[in-house]
Design a protein that fits this description.
The protein has a single domain, classed as 2-Layer Sandwich (Alpha-Beta Plaits), CATH 3.30.70. Strands 2-3-1-4-5 form a 5-stranded antiparallel sheet. The chain is of the alpha+beta class. It has 3 helices and 5 strands, in the order E-H-E-E-H-E-E-H. A hairpin with a 4-residue loop joins strand 4 and strand 5. The termini are far apart.
Length: about 80
């Protein structure tokens, strides 16, 4: 599995995971050493999963970091 996003708390990770689950994308949440939560997906699902998270940016009020050093702040995307 490959890193899709890093979340600062478990609730954010669970919200993102529920969106992936609703779209039929297998995922796993792994705790990292700094107290964050990493959302992992299979590499074959990475692009579709990113599209889902980008779409979520207009719906929810939280932020997360996408894998591969691509940061996304959901508050900034709404405006």
């Amino acid at each position: 599995m490959i890193l899709l996003a890093s979340c600062t708390n478990e609730m954010e990770a669970q919200l993102l995971a529920s969106k992936l689950k609703a779209s039929g994308i297998d995922h796993k949440i792994k705790d990292d050493q700094s107290g964050g939560h990493n959302l992992m997906v299979f590499e074959d699902d990475l692009e579709e999963a990113r599209e889902i998270l980008h779409a979520a940016a207009g719906e929810d009020d939280f932020s997360f970091d996408l894998g591969e050093d691509e940061d996304i702040n959901l508050d900034e995307l709404e405006g």
